[in-house]
Write a structure and sequence with these properties.
Layout (H helix, E strand, L loop, with lengths): L3 H33 L4 H23 L12 E2 L1 H13 L5 E6 L7 E6 L2 E6 L5 H42 L17 H46 L4 H29 L5 E4 H14 L4 E6 L2 E5 L1 H18 L3 E8 L2 E7 L34 H11 L3 E6 L5 E7 L4 E3 L1
Parallel strand pairs: 6-8
Antiparallel strand pairs: 1-2, 2-3, 3-4, 5-7, 7-12, 8-9, 9-11, 10-11
Helix pairs in contact: 1-4, 2-3, 5-6, 6-9, 7-8, 8-9
C-alpha cells in the first residue's frame, strides 16, 4: 500500500464504504426501531385494530348474520401469527377468536375474527416481510458498493496510467545513464513532469559529453608538451635527466589513464563468448615476464559472454594493482554454481574502512598505507569497475585478515559456464 495507485484506490474505496455503511446503519436502525425493538408490536397493533372494528360492528353483527362470512378466510394457516394475536386479545380481556391464513396469490396474510354472527376477514401486515425488506436493502447496498468500488479502481488506474509509463521508461535507463525521451501526454501535470524529465536528461547528457570531451582533449593536448619536455630532458646531465624522465612518464600514465577511462564510458563493444581462464593466464604470463610478483592459485576453465578486450583490461588493472601496492597478486578463478568468480588477493596493508567507499573514485589514492611512490594514476580501479559493471558483473573489495586486500569480480548466474 505504498504506491500512489494503491493509495488512491484505498482512499476512494474507504470513502465509498463509509458512506454505504452510514446509509445502511440508518436504514437498519429505522427498521429496527419500528419493527424489532418491540417484539409485541405486531400483536398489539393487530389486537387494537380488531377491537376497534369489533366495537363498531358489534350492534350490526347482532342484528343479522348475513353481513359476515360463515367461515374463516381460505388459505394456509399461520400459527406463528395467530398465536401472538390471540394472546394479545386475551390479555386485553376480549373473548374473540381469531385465525390467520395465507391465501394463495396474495402477498399479505388475512386475519379472520369470529363474531356471534360469523367471521370478519381483515388484511394484516406480515412482520416476517420486514426481514425480506432488510435483505433486499442489504443486497442493494452490496451491489452499489461493488459497482462504485469497481469504478473507483478503474478511475485510480486511469489516473496513474501515465505515472506507470514514466516508471517503465525510467527503468530503461541505458548504461550511459541516459533516460529515453518520455511521451509528453496525459493530464497537464503529467505533461509538465515528462517535459521536466526530458529537459533534465538532455542537460545531463550534454554535461556528461562535455566532461568527456574535456578530459579527452586535455589528455590528448598534454602529449605535445610532454614530448617537448622529453626531448629537452635528453640534454640534461644524467642525474637531472633521470628525475625529469620519471616525472614525464608519470604524466603520460595519467593522461593515458584519463583517456582510457573516457573511452570506457563511451565505448560500446559487442559481447562474445570468451575463455576467462585463457585471459587470466595471458595477463599473468605477461606480468611475470615483467618480473611482477603474480601467482595463480587455482584456475578453472570458464566461458562467459563479454567483450574480450574490456575484460582483459579490467583483470590486468586489478592484478597490477595487487602486485604493485599489495606486495604480490594471488589469482583464483572458479565457477560457483553458474557464476564466474575471479578473486585477486594480496598481502599489502589493505584499505582503511573510512576510505573503502571512495576507492573507485577517479584519481583517488589511499592514505597512508597504500600511497607508494610507484606507478599509477589512481584510475585503475575506476576503469575496472566501469568495465565490469557495464557488462553485467560486480566488482567488490574487502580487507583480509590479518592483512591484505581481496578484489573480487563476479559475473552473475546464467552468464558463465564451464568450458
Amino acid at each position: 500500500m505504498t504506491s500512489l495507485r494503491a493509495r488512491i484506490v484505498l482512499t476512494l474505496v474507504s470513502s465509498i464504504l463509509c458512506v454505504i455503511l452510514v446509509v445502511a446503519a440508518i436504514a437498519f436502525s429505522m427498521r429496527w426501531k419500528h419493527e424489532w425493538r418491540e417484539p409485541n408490536n405486531f400483536a398489539q397493533l393487530g389486537a387494537e385494530q380488531i377491537l376497534t372494528i369489533a366495537s363498531l360492528l358489534d350492534g350490526e353483527a347482532k342484528g343479522g348474520p348475513g353481513h359476515l362470512a360463515s367461515e374463516p378466510a381460505a388459505g394456509t394457516p399461520r400459527p406463528d401469527l395467530s398465536g401472538p394475536l390471540q394472546s394479545e386479545l386475551r390479555r386485553a380481556g376480549s373473548a374473540l377468536r381469531v385465525t390467520v391464513t395465507q391465501p394463495v396469490g396474495i402477498t399479505h396474510p388475512l386475519v379472520s375474527v369470529k363474531f356471534d354472527s360469523g367471521w370478519l376477514t381483515l388484511p394484516i401486515k406480515d412482520p416476517n416481510h420486514t426481514k425480506e425488506v432488510l435483505v433486499s436493502i442489504a443486497g442493494g447496498l452490496l451491489l452499489v458498493g461493488a459497482g462504485t468500488i469497481a469504478v473507483a479502481v478503474w478511475f485510480a488506474f486511469r489516473i496513474t496510467r501515465n505515472l506507470a509509463a514514466l516508471e517503465r521508461v525510467a527503468a530503461t535507463i541505458d548504461d550511459d545513464g541516459v533516460v529515453p525521451k518520455l511521451p509528453e501526454s496525459g493530464p497537464p501535470e503529467l505533461k509538465a513532469v515528462a517535459r521536466a524529465i526530458n529537459t533534465m536528461t538532455a542537460r545531463l547528457k550534454s554535461a556528461a559529453e562535455s566532461r568527456m570531451r574535456l578530459v579527452a582533449a586535455a589528455g590528448h593536448d598534454l602529449r605535445t608538451p610532454m614530448t617537448r619536455m622529453r626531448l629537452r630532458a635528453e640534454f640534461l646531465d644524467e642525474e637531472d635527466r633521470s628525475m625529469w624522465l620519471n616525472d614525464i612518464e608519470e604524466l603520460e600514465r595519467i593522461a593515458d589513464s584519463a583517456i582510457q577511462l573516457v573511452r570506457e564510458e563511451t565505448r560500446c563493444e559487442s559481447s562474445q563468448l570468451v575463455r576467462v581462464d585463457e585471459i587470466i593466464l595471458g595477463v599473468c604470463s605477461d606480468l611475470v615476464s615483467m618480473k611482477e610478483p603474480v601467482k595463480i592459485m587455482k584456475i578453472e576453465a570458464v566461458t562467459i559472454s563479454t567483450p574480450r578486450l574490456a575484460l582483459t583490461r579490467a583483470v590486468r588493472n586489478l592484478i597490477v594493482n595487487a602486485a604493485t601496492h599489495g606486495g604480490g597478486a594471488f589469482v583464483t578463478l572458479a565457477l560457483e554454481n553458474t557464476s564466474a568468480s575471479i578473486t585477486i588477493d594480496d598481502e599489502g596493508p589493505g584499505i582503511p574502512d573510512h576510505s573503502m567507499s571512495r576507492v573507485f573514485e577517479p584519481f583517488f589514492r589511499v592514505d597512508p598505507g597504500r600511497r607508494k611512490s610507484g606507478p599509477g594514476a589512481g584510475l585503475g580501479l575506476a576503469i575496472a569497475k566501469e568495465i565490469v559493471e557495464r557488462h553485467g558483473g560486480q566488482l567488490t573489495l574487502q580487507n583480509r585478515w590479518p592483512k591484505g586486500l581481496r578484489q573480487r569480480i563476479v559475473f552473475p548466474a546464467g552468464r558463465a559456464e564451464a568450458s
